[in-house]
């Protein structure tokens, strides 16, 4: 903690610890009942001696439980633990929740299977006998929730198999397996289940990372990759400084420590719940008027609500998983990509400036980058026709 945080910390330590927060913190950090008691005492500013007296335990037992909490939270001091606990006490208060189960969109089939004692969700839309597309969604625009995705897939003769990635929709996070490898294994299992020998990968935003990992592990099963609005590996601090604050803060937090990212993500979910299913993009595109304007188009509102439910179903677990992927060094996945790679990017994308795309070009000079004027991160909404035209040509081996 920075010295200037002292006054805020003292203020937070004066707040109460609602019982509902116990349940949230236990679920979030896999705490025992005893550890939760100690954490709530820390939030109240108690010393180990005071905790021992109140809880009827020895000081040695209390100190051991504090040590275990430090390890689970990735914190370096009791002060950090107390700050986290107190912030959660204030932030995790109940708030009204918008509708979580919007209507099932016409033409969107939902399926699931089990792998490694986990549920993996997936969906299908488009032409059943069309060119096989394996879609890897990003954090912002769901996977087939918008009418134009399903209509354009049918129009262009595409059979789109959209995985629900870790922590999104119904797909459970892998507890023991490395997150990126788990996503690759999920994708291969879906391909085997559906009899897909070879596919074109269609990835949004940070989903380019598992798309590249799949191509590297099983190049014989991937024709090519079309990536939309992807950010390159973070190799320069300026990349983060240039991002909108409400987006860059999560990457900075994840780089600092996982517990800090967890806390910010819980606060984000609360903010989304407060905004509701029709206004939730305000948290993503605050003060970026041209991006917000795309999300507010009347014909998109059913998709906006469905995307909200898809994103919040697991309380931000999917975005947390994505943050861990983004902060890793995945340059080699780009450099060694064994299949044709094409990027489509909005020239007004505030999250990844056009100048940062040179990182991709330096890593893989033979990739193709197509820029679209007057488009931003909401490219998937504003230029859907262009995207599906390019996807159809690429899937059919056309230029």
What's the quick description here?
The chain is of the alpha/beta class and about 400 residues long.
Shape: globular
Largest sheet: 8 strands, mixed
Question: How big is the Rg?
Answer: 22 Å
Task: Label the structural class.
Answer: alpha/beta
H/E series, N to C? HHHHHHEEEHEHEHEHHHHHHHHEHEHH
Number of strands: 8
Name the poorly predicted regions.
Answer: 1-20, 90-103
The residue fraction in helices comes out at: 40-55%
Average pLDDT: 85
The strand line-up of the biggest sheet is: 1-2-4-3-5-6-7-8
Strand content: 5-15%
User: What is the tally of helical segments?
Assistant: 20
Distance between the termini: 53 Å
Give the topology, please:
Layout: H1 6-13, H2 19-29, H3 33-43, H4 48-55, H5 59-73, H6 78-91, E1 109-115, E2 118-126, E3 131-136, H7 147-155, E4 158-163, H8 179-194, E5 199-204, H9 208-217, E6 222-228, H10 237-242, H11 245-256, H12 258-275, H13 281-284, H14 289-295, H15 301-312, H16 317-326, H17 331-335, E7 341-346, H18 358-363, E8 368-372, H19 379-382, H20 384-395
Parallel strand pairs: 3-4, 3-5, 5-6, 6-7, 7-8
Antiparallel strand pairs: 1-2, 2-4
Helix pairs in contact: 3-5, 3-6, 4-5, 6-12, 8-9, 11-12, 11-16, 12-16
Features:
399 residues; eight-stranded mixed beta sheet; 20 helices; 8 strands; 50% helix; disordered N terminus
Question: Can you put this structure into words, describing what you see?
Answer:
By secondary structure, this protein is of the alpha/beta class. 50% of the residues lie in helices and 13% in strands. Strands 1-2-4-3-5-6-7-8 form an 8-stranded mixed β-sheet, with helices on both faces. A hairpin with a 2-residue loop joins strand 1 (109-115) and strand 2. It is globular and about 75 Å long.
């Amino acid at each position: 903690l920075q010295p200037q945080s002292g006054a805020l910390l003292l203020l937070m330590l004066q707040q109460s610890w609602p019982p509902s927060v116990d349940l949230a913190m236990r679920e979030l950090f896999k705490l025992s009942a005893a550890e939760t008691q100690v954490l709530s005492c820390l939030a109240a500013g108690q010393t180990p001696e005071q905790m021992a007296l109140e809880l009827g335990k020895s000081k040695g037992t209390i100190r051991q439980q504090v040590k275990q909490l430090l390890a689970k939270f990735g914190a370096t001091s009791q002060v950090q633990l107390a700050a986290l606990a107190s912030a959660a006490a204030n932030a995790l208060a109940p708030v009204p929740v918008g509708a979580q189960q919007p209507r099932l969109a016409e033409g969107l089939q939902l399926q699931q299977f089990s792998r490694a004692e986990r549920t993996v969700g997936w969906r299908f839309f488009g032409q059943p006998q069309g060119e096989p597309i394996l879609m890897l969604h990003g954090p912002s625009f769901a996977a087939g929730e918008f009418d134009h995705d399903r209509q354009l897939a049918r129009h262009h003769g595409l059979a789109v198999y959209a995985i629900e990635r870790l922590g999104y929709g119904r797909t459970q996070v892998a507890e023991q397996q490395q997150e990126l490898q788990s996503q690759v294994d999920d994708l291969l299992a879906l391909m085997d289940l559906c009899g897909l020998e070879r596919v074109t990968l269609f990835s949004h935003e940070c989903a380019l990372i598992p798309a590249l990992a799949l191509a590297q592990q099983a190049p014989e099963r991937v024709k090519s990759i079309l990536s939309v609005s992807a950010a390159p590996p973070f190799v320069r601090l300026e990349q983060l400084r240039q991002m909108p604050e409400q987006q860059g803060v999560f990457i900075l937090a994840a780089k600092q420590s996982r517990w800090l990212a967890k806390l910010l993500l819980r606060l984000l979910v609360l903010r989304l719940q407060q905004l509701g299913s029709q206004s939730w993009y305000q948290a993503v595109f605050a003060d970026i008027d041209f991006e917000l304007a795309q999300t507010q188009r009347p014909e998109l509102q059913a998709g906006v609500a469905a995307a909200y439910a898809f994103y919040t179903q697991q309380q931000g677990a999917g975005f947390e998983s994505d943050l861990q992927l983004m902060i890793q060094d995945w340059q080699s996945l780009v450099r060694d990509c064994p299949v044709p790679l094409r990027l489509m990017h909005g020239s007004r994308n505030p999250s990844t400036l056009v100048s940062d795309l040179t990182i991709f070009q330096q890593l893989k000079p033979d990739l193709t980058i197509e820029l679209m004027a007057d488009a931003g991160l909401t490219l998937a909404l504003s230029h859907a026709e262009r995207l599906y035209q390019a996807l159809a040509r690429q899937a059919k081996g056309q230029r």
